[in-house]
Design a protein that fits this description.
By secondary structure, the protein is an alpha/beta fold. The strands form 3 sheets. The chain has an 8-stranded parallel beta barrel with strand order 3-4-7-8-9-10-12-13, surrounded by 5 helices. Strands 5-6-11 form a 3-stranded antiparallel sheet, with no helix packed on it.
Length: 349
Amino acid sequence: MLLAPLIHLLEPETAHKLGLLCLRSGVLPQARAVRHASLQTRVLGLEFANPVGLAAGFDKNAVAINGLFAQGFGFVEAGTVTPLPQPGNPKPRIFRLKEDEAVINRLGFNNEGLAVFTRNFASRNPALGIAGANIGKNKDSADAVADYVLGLRAVYPQADYITVNISSPNTQGLRALQQQDALRDLLSVLMSEHAECSAAHGRHVPLLLKVAPDLEPGEREAIAQAVVDFRLDGLIVSNTTISRPASLKSVHKGEQGGLSGKPLMELSTQVLKHFYQLTKGQLPLIGVGGIASGADAYAKIRAGATLVQLYSALVYQGFGLVARINQELDAQLKRDGFTHISQAIGKDA
């Protein structure tokens, strides 16, 4: 936190690159491990030391996974990675909305491609925690489905789980893949490819879908049905929003792109709760969007999340937030008479 004022003097992307360099080099102080039996959980066939994860978008090229685990995360999701390297959208493309504790980005899946990503991912220490890979399509790809197949094949041998990102607002046409027919076509191919990868590698790698918070109720119903029909392992709810709450104060509130951070909390939690109801609590859900405290994380869990992820709050509170959330989660479980986090899942849904 002492470094935050200095970091905020830097342009956002410069500050982000500096953060990744520090994490990769191991120069940041390591977080004191938070270990509560109440927070250790088995989800997706995997053992999580705690339910607080890092959302995709921070470590796009999987360069700092080991360093991120040293900050106390229960799991880390790297990416989004596309088959070919791409620079993303023109700069400036990240905006801090300080008064709102929010961020707007229109990065556009800037990353170094699958070859670099998989090489970096392979260098992580698997003993440190659960690491997922988030896959997407190239901006100019003529065949989106083929891009996701390439991504699935490439990351399958190394990833603990794989997320199919069809919900970023910053790649033209991407969110159209959430529409019923397009989604079913994509999942049909991916699940067939997933079965082949599972047989070839002798292990089942959970496959999840990441959706937007801006879906209409009918669209959510169609997605939930497709996910159940194709037997995906879980959903991540949600990505950034293209909506702009009237309460925003920052001068940057009108910038194009996806809004994340505190203003997304209420919307993303409502959508999460709806997906929990639609899937009848039978599908693991990862709650993302606006988490900045243990109370926020607990609200996601009570709305139906089995695990949670954060990112934007780190911009304002630093990595010490991860340990605080875990401590606060344990305290809130005890306050409500729960001995384990699984007992609180969906209590408000």
